[in-house]
Amino acid sequence: MATELPLDAPMVETLAALREAEAACTRCPLHRNATLVVPGEGPDTARLMLVGEQPGDQEDLSGKPFVGPAGKLLDRAIAEAGIDRREVFVTNAVKHFKWEARGKRRLHKKPNAHEIERCRWWNDLERALVKPDLVVALGATAAASLLGRTVTLARTRGTALTARDGTALLVTVHPSYLLRLRGEADRTREYAAFVADLALAARRLRSAA
Ligand code: SF4
User: Fold this and answer.
1) What φ, ψ does residue 50 adopt, rounded to 5°?
2) What residue ranges line ligand 1, CB within 6 angstroms?
3) Which of 48, 50, 46, 28 is nearest to 37 (CA)?
4) 108, 138, 200, 209 from 196: Cα distances, Å
5) Secondary structure (3-state) at 162
6) Angle (deg, nearest 10), helices 15-23 and 113-130
7) Which domains does the chain have, with CATH numbers?
8) Ligand 1 site-directed mutation target among 28, 97, 110, most atoms within 8 Å of CB
9) For residue 46, how far is its CA from the centre of ligand 1 (angstroms)?
10) Distance 25 CA to ligand 1 centre (A)
């Protein structure tokens, strides 16, 4: 199904124009304490779009999505799932880094429902421009943004869902979840499940081609 633009959306016709518009965004307070906006990245012809939660510390400084430790793990899993990373559009439900100071460190803070809702407008525009065949939500925040309601990952993971705009949707965990696991056995098992979810996405795309 075609993605409808938000009714009050700015007139952006390219990803470059979208990036510029996002950089000037003040729709929620998160722009105030962030360094750079982190727009989505990838080809505007991508059939697969991956949506994370929000940029992390390294993404905030570079202005690029998934360049930190979670991004490196995602790259590895994407490759193991047989997906060409260059053909994927990667983005986040929220485009500015939300953090709290802990000494000299900036610790990730989860975006709230208002911030997710305010930033959803940019994600809707991204999908309107890229028109992916399949979106994979990486974690509960992305799933909530795409579905317009909160869901339990354990219940929705691996299930064929439909985003608010009609785009086919799968839900899996965020790679940062894998980094937080302490036991080697847990990490190995959960990483394999994550790769399996991405491989399922690849199969769905092949069967829809
Ligand atoms: S987080 Fe999203 S809605 Fe909030 S200021 Fe940044 S771009 Fe705008």
Assistant:
1) -105, 130
2) 22, 25-28, 30-31, 37, 94-96, 115, 118-119, 122
3) 28
4) 27, 13, 6, 20
5) strand
6) 160
7) 15-208 (3.40.470.10)
8) 28
9) 23
10) 6
Helix axis angle, 113-130 relative to 140-147, nearest 10°?
Answer: 70
Determine the residue type at 133: D
CB atoms closer than 10 angstroms to residue 156: 17
Q: What is the CA radius of gyration of the chain?
A: 16
Q: Where are the alpha helices (DSSP H) in the chain?
A: 15-23, 57-62, 69-80, 113-130, 140-147, 153-156, 175-180, 184-208
Q: How many residues does the chain have?
A: 209
Residue among 8, 18, 19, 25 whose CB has most ligand 1 atoms within 8 A, to mutate: 25
Q: What are the structure tokens assigned to 205, written together? A: 């795309």
Pocket test for ligand 1, best of 37, 54, 117, 124 (most atoms within 8 A of CB): 37
Beta bridge partners of 102: 105
Instruction: Summarize pLDDT for 166-208 with one digit per residue, the tens.
Output: 999 999 999 999 999 999 999 999 999 999 999 999 999 999 8
The string of pLDDT tens digits covering residues 19-53 is 999 999 999 999 999 999 999 999 999 999 999 99
